[in-house]
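Incident log, structure service

09:12 report received: a user says their structure output differs between two submissions of the same chain.
09:20 pulled the input from the user's history:
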Amino acid sequence: MPASPEDTASPENTVDVVVVGSLNVDLTARVRHHPLPGQTVSASALTSTPGGKGANQAVAAARLGARTALVGRVGDDAHADDLLRSLHADGVDTSHTGSDPRAPTGTALVTVADSGENAIVVVAGANACLDDGDIDAARQLLASARVVSLVLEIPLATVIAAAHAVGANTDAARIVLNLSPVLDVPADVLALADPLIVNEHEAHDVLRDNGITAEPGVDQASALCRLGARSAVVTLGANGAALADADQAEHVPGLPADVVDTTGAGDAFAGTLAWRLSQGDTLSNAARWAVRVSAHSVGHTGAQASYPTRDELRAAVSRN
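09:34 re-ran on a clean worker, output below:
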């Protein structure tokens, strides 16, 4: 791993990372333990913070120095105003994030236990209204991107349309497909994923649905490539990540972390990976940076609030 993250200068009309995905307001309750079915538990605190897997990845990349844009949809309400202001503050281009009066802004109901583990219920709201028309309107933006990250908290048909729009370009961006939640993605879309990102449980579900059994980690990543992805990354929590492509398979070790809150750690990983791939890193090196940033994230509360800036990341690297 290099001593500090260095970027390749982008031409004026180039965007490093375009994320096509969701925006949510996260309503987070801190609890001693997650409630069992039928059980009521008391919370020590309730917070409202910006979230959504798409917005989280965009913020993670932008804070690290990527020129980043988000294609998404919010409602016409106060939550939308708060989310857009927060994205602007982090330098994310929201010119293709529309406001929809038909549905409220997406909401995530999150409980975080003392262990740091979370449980999340997502209400899609306006995210479910993102459609092919939004992708058509963003074609020029998508064509200008080095990396396009596709996030499955929006309609699958919209993800497919975005993948086809990017893949149709002769000088296409690299597509990062974050298959969370797991949905049945067409083979031609899976074949564009470079990489496909899933956690070990999602990898198990994808492979099981295709009649494949694989051990968690490198074996899963290799199997996902055989299934059709150009490359694959399986996140393993505290154990780091496993990756594979046509030429190699590798385990990237985790880093020590005092876990406070795991909310958004996977998005920190994906956003960082997209940033480093946009700068020409190998998948292996990009995954090492992503492991580092996600380890930083779990040591802080919240999703976007836990993501480091480039200066904070450099300081962390210099200490290790």
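09:41 both user submissions now match this output. Likely a transient worker issue. Closing.
09:42 reviewer note: The CA atoms of residues 20 and 71 lie 5 Å apart. Residues 15-23+52-105+126-319 form a domain with the UDP-N-acetylmuramoyl-L-alanine:D-glutamate ligase fold (CATH 3.40.1190.20).
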